[in-house]
Amino acid sequence: MNFKMLGKFLGTVLLIEAALLVFPLIVSLIYKEPIAPFLITIAILLALSLPTLLLKPKRQRIYAKEGFICTALSWILLSLFGALPFVISGSIPNYIDAFFETVSGFTTTGASIIPAGQIEAIPKGVLFWRSFTHWIGGMGILVFMLAIMPGSDGNVFLMRAEVPGPQKGKLVSKLRNSSLILYIIYLVLTVAETIALLLTRMPLYDSIINAFGTMGTGGFSVLNDSIAGYNNPAAEWIIAIFLLLAGVNYNLYFFILIGKFRDVKKNEELKTYLIITLVSTTLISLNIFYNLTEYTAASDAVRDAFFQVTSIMSTAGFSTASFDMWPSFSQTLIVVLMLLGACAGSTAGGFKISRCLIVLKSIKRDIRKIFKPNSVKTIRLDGNPLDEDTVKSSLSYLSIYFVIIVISVMVIALDGMDIVTTSTAVISCFNNIGPALGEAHASFDVFSYFSKLFLSFLMLFGRLEIMPMLVLFSPSTWRKN
Amino acid sequence: MKIIITGSGTVGSAICHQLIKEGHDVTVIDSNHVTLTEISNTCDVTAMLGNSADVELLREAGAESADLLIAVTAMDEVNMLSCYAARKLGTAHTVARVRNPEYTTFMNLMKEDMNLSLTINPEYATAKEIARILKFPNASKVDTFCDGRVEIAEIKVAPDSPLCNLSLFDLREKFNIKFLVCGVRRSEEVYIPSGNFVIREGDSICVTAPEEELQKFFKLISKNKRPIKNILISGGGRTTYYLAKMLGKNLGNTTIIEKNLVRCEDLSAEYNIDVTHGDGTSQELLLEEGLESADVFLALSDVDEENAIVSMYAKKIGVPKIITMIRSLPYIDFFKDVGLDCIVSPKSSTVDYILRFIRGMADAKDSEIESLHTMMNGKIEALEFIIKENIEGLTGIPIAEIKRIKNSLLACIVRDGSIIIPSGSDTINVGDRIIVLVTGSIKNIKDILD
């Protein structure tokens, strides 16, 4: 283990966090709120990170194991220090609660422990930071670091650990340029949404916050009633559409930009994503329109259904309607969508559609093998043959994915909640969605501190796609050989 | 620059690592999944799986806008094809590795039609390197600069060498030879020494001087003062074939031992030398062919391990100069550690040669390097520049007053065709060619100023 390199690296991550905290600081200044919470946090971060810059590692290379550990530790540290403004400002007095909230922010979960109805009482600067963490965490802090830091090339493993999906490719040959392109697309989409929301007469502050929540697929909002609180159908449509966009693999946007429409057209994952969205929206609209008396106009049902489907699939977790009151069929469908997630290479969490496609194709091949034992069949995705390693890793990911869900449900069940609350809370946190069903629909405050801490790490497991956290917590990593 | 490398074998990956270090945009194509994964894990490149002569794949790799394609797959034909295809698609320059001597004339014929910027024959390059070493047998490696006018030689300091335990300053005083020690490797560390650096036994040092002075220097330090007469070569492969051609009349009393009868016959038909058909690893045969009286022993067979073992044996017997050919790059360091100090390698020759060419190309674009050599396993770079204009802080002032970056050295000035090994009071003028040594990478002469 190259501890010096690790120290230097984590120091840089903290330094970047200090720089990012300047934005909420400015917001606080604009709204004439106390800036102490941010100033103190920045001071602590600088005090810790500046000395690490003096470290002179002998070996510059980072290997796979170190890459995973760097990633996992960066996210944990970011959250540990990111929680400080909440505590210092008194918005969330308990540190564990604040940690949960920050992890929920960075992992773009959007699950909140702030009790229902109390969000609007929190200072605007602090709320800005809460949503800004979504935006940073959405594309990834290490990707950001690679994009802005010169000479960070060669750290291929860092990006691997952070970018979700079964296949990790670069857009262009240089990692740094790839990261930069991703962030530019991300930024442009965010600005576009902000402007679109402004046009619906949403206030600037709220537009920016909701754009952060949408593009990062986080789902923190500044109103007690989430997006429903605006009573603004146009804004709901805009957010739903941008949620849909946020769930698309960002590489495809790059292909569109450079005119490679053919690659976009043959992308199976995108096609599946759009079909699932369409089918689920139709089913849920019909289900709620005919079962709930409050829907008098079909357009309302369609809008709410579309919004909820995109919000859950992209793993943002905004809500325009209390879907915990919806009929059982719709609720179940929503839980299934929670497990599924959106496209690989997007800012969304979940199992990812491409992985699902690979698993399904592999099952199909195995069935074929039963009646045609000697058949040889290569699994293809987007028309290109997939290597067996990718297939295998998708299958093993599926197994670990469910093992973790089962174990987590057992652990959270210790709190004594009903099974719907317990299991949906686990699924919601692990897939970085946010809201759960049952008692935890409005706020995760109902859980014990142990469960909150457990769920925090579960969110990190989900965001980093399990492996980096597993590596961090496996004893063999730290054993000296 | 945008560079496409086809072939991710030893040479491809060595070139790739260096190019990435220098900040180029690299795409690697190979049909071998394993080596390709390895390279994409350790290098910031785009890796593409497939046949490197596949036009669609080349197009996808960006051959239409690439500055350079380097074809170093194992197959000559594929290399030529991919270069040809890339040129057609619009790649500005192409480099092909072609090792089969039978293609040499073909390449000369087609070079223009195929628009190849450079072809490299690894065995030929190695033979050339061996020929250079034979000129200064005490050196383990010799490079030439400024169209062959300046030579840099790498030597290992023997325990009883007159160089031991003297500072560089004292050395120059004592021997009155104009030479410059421009690099020292002690255990794993590499230094660019200053005047009060003391040389110890076991150090590897790089020395530069004009040819006559260098000859004098070697005469001084060599135990064995008689010129090379008896050369014994084990292995009659392509390298031997080219080497025999280069040595020409200077062959002296050369004996080649080769296992393969056909090769023996070929060599014997082509050159007027002694060829023995037999196993070059047999002690008895080696002794019979005069290993004990050989001035130079060359282990040039196709098997690295055999070469290493017979070289160690020759060393034990007491052959004054032993040159060992090692094909596998990772082996080189191992064998250096067990005492084989003069190792040549077709692969590292290829890498050096291609990199030199690329630097030359990159220079035309954004730097001014005329030529480049690496020494001490690539840890020191020797760069040749032409001073085209007055540069503040560099030209017109005594060298002692130039504020250079750490670990750099002005090794040599070539002015009006004559070579000056600079002392502190010399100045650099416009029009000079200078050779600079650094431990990092620089692109521009101004980068040397602190």
Commentary on this structure:
The complex is a heterodimer of chains A (481) and B (450). Chain A is an all-alpha fold and 481 residues long. Chain A is 64% helix and 1% strand. A two-stranded antiparallel sheet of chain A has the order 1-2. In chain A, a hairpin with a 2-residue loop joins strand 1 and strand 2. The N and C termini of chain A lie close together (10 Å). Helix content of chain B is 35%, strand content 25%. Chain B is globular, with a radius of gyration of 23 Å. By secondary structure, chain B is α/β, with parallel strands linked by helices. In chain B, strand 15, helix 12 and strand 16 form a beta-alpha-beta unit. Chain B folds into four domains: 119 residues, 3-Layer(aba) Sandwich (Rossmann fold); 96 residues, Regulator of K+ conductance, C-terminal domain (Alpha-Beta Plaits, 2-Layer Sandwich), CATH 3.30.70.1450; 119 residues, NAD(P)-binding Rossmann-like Domain (Rossmann fold); 90 residues, 2-Layer Sandwich (Alpha-Beta Plaits), CATH 3.30.70.1450. Classes of the chains: A mainly alpha (481), B alpha/beta (450).
The tally of beta strands of chain B, per DSSP, is 22
Mean pLDDT of chain B: 82
Mean pLDDT of chain A: 88
Q: How does CATH name the architecture of the largest domain in chain B?
A: 3-Layer(aba) Sandwich
Low-confidence parts of chain B lasting 5 or more residues at pLDDT below 50? none
Q: What is the SS-derived class of chain A?
A: mainly alpha
Strand order of the largest sheet of chain B: 3-2-1-4-5-6
What quaternary form is this?
heterodimer
- Give the full name of the CATH homologous superfamily of the largest domain in chain B: NAD(P)-binding Rossmann-like Domain
**CA gyration radius of chain A, whole angstroms:** 22 Å
Strand content of chain B: 25-35%
Output the strand order for the largest sheet of chain A. Answer: 1-2
Helical content of chain B stands at 25-40%
**Rg from Cα of chain B:** 23 Å
Contiguous helical run count of chain B = 14
DSSP strand content of chain A = under 5%
How many strands, which pairing sense, and closed or not: the largest β-sheet of chain B? 6 strands, parallel
Total DSSP E strands of chain A: 2
